[in-house]
Amino acid sequence: MTAQERRVFHAAAPVRLDFAGGWTDVPPFSTREGGLVVNAAISLSVRAEVELGGTGMLLRAEDLGEAAVIAHATQLAGHGPLPLLRAALRMFPPGPCTLRTFSEVPVGSGLGSSGALDVALVSVLAVARGEALTREQAAAYGWELEAVEAGLPGGRQDQCAAAFGGFHLLGFDDGEPTIEPLDLTEDFLTALEQRILVCFTGRSRVSGDTIARVMGAYERGESGVVEALRGLKETASRMAEAMQQGDCDKVGALLQRNWELQQALDSSMCTEEMGGLEAAMTQLGALGGKAAGAGAGGCMFFLFRDSDQVARAKAAATHLGATVLPVEWNGNGVRTW
Q1: 49-101 tens-digit pLDDT
Q2: What's the CA gap between 234 and 228, in Å, rounded?
Q3: CA–CA separation, 113 vs 204, rounded Å?
Q4: CA–CA separation, 35 vs 4, rounded Å?
Q5: Alpha helix ranges (H) inside the chain
Q6: Among residues 315, 213, 225, 299, which one has the least CA distance to residue 262?
């Protein structure tokens, strides 16, 4: 079958664990002082599928159980259900089609699933139009899709992780992100993978209002928020060094430091469920842990001294009502077929 005869196109993009520096990739802090983030892509992914043909456009988010029918492309303008899918079709219109999306992570996980969805959407729609995006373009268009076309607030780290995969130190300012791969040993990567526990505590309660509140406090020069954001940036730099040294103990301590700084940004960052889980994991020997993403629900992840501790911690987390998610590093980023 030739490319012109193909009717169905697919893309999959990984979600991520943000080890340090999250929030510093969000304007205006990133544009004024420059942000730094250390993150790593994991094997859980978000997928998008385009089937060309038919009349109009059918949009289906299978993981959400939501759908929308668009009779004519002009109806994609303005607000409506499934805003990211609608925005993607405005940016890369393929003609009449069915656009489906699927996610392997819970809604509101804090693992950057919306950023992964951004990258999967622009990548699959570009391929359906006979175009090919570089990884840099997939990350850039993915961020433009969410922040500009859909008008949703947030940073840029998630799209970078989804597009490139792997472990990176990411820099953010007025221009395009700087993407520095971290040179890590296989022994360290294996140890890290075996000693991390990722737990979903419940849907994240962070909203655009929370982001606006934090960055508004930064713009007003509120010392607690300003110092916390600067501390998060410094923690990301130290995290990259600790990883390159293969120092798991230091990685654990820096995870904990990052979590303390996250909580200093806003009083809503740590929910009751998160506090209970953190106390239990600390009692079981966690070196450190933090909320994935912004906080206020979603996932937390913890680093332990050995795999035996992880096994006991899994049982304790499940008993507390958390859902344990698998961890496997993804070094490839977005793929299309």
Answers
A1: 999 998 899 999 998 999 999 888 778 887 788 999 999 999 999 999 999 99
A2: 10
A3: 12
A4: 43
A5: 29-33, 83-91, 113-128, 135-143, 157-164, 186-195, 208-219, 223-244, 248-265, 272-283, 307-319
A6: 225
